[in-house]
Design brief:
The protein has about 210 residues and is of the alpha+beta class. It has a domain at about 15-150: Nucleoside Triphosphate Pyrophosphohydrolase (Alpha-Beta Complex). The chain is about 20% helix and about 35% strand. The chain is built from four helices and twelve strands; from the N terminus they run H-E-E-E-E-H-E-E-E-E-H-E-E-E-H-E. Strands 1, 2, 3, 4, 5, 6, 7 and 8 form an eight-stranded mixed sheet that branches. It has a four-stranded mixed sheet with strand order 11-10-9-12. Strand 9 (about 165) and strand 10 form a beta hairpin. Helix 1 (about 15-20) packs across helix 4 (about 185-200).
Length: about 210
Amino acid sequence: MTRYLTSTNLPTWWHPLAERAAKIEGREITRFLPPKNGDATPSAVLILLAEGGDGPDVLLMQRSATLRHHAGQPSFPGGVTEPDDADPIATALREANEEVGLDPTSVTVVTTLPDLWINVTNYRVTPVLAWWHTAHPILSINPGEVSSVARVPLSDLADPIRRVRARHPSGYIGPGFDVNGMLVWGFTAGVLATVLRLGGWEQPWEPGRLHDLA
């Protein structure tokens, strides 16, 4: 079953990403897939791509250092599904509105990626890919949850000099990006690496700098 929802009025650069993302399987993204027993907490994130001054960009935010989970980490807007949310798309749009003031009418949802798993918190996460056709000013609505918000050019993320390997205290090593004064790692970095690959933006890079996480 395809997850490709719409291609209407998308810029040319969007199409390879949309078509490939609609067909990808979870195991092509990560080895961390939701447990089959279904006890993981449902949640969703919004991967919001827009046309910026330096080409396509993606919306990222830095979570507050005082949060209980994922404190201080760069991430996509998103969170846990609430009872009134009709589906993961509704969750992602609601959370983005609450966190950074995103106007849902400025967004065209294109497709979703397969459900992934954040094992530390036992979240089953649905990444929602969307076209920000009418970008508008955004800001942190609640500084207690979000310390800053940024639109990061995909060309910066694809730059080999920005690519790092992030080593967790557990010993796990995953992809990372040193960009906009942020070290993007973990779940968010893994999804971003997939977006770059599917969209044709990824550049060859030598696994080099190893960044140890606190």
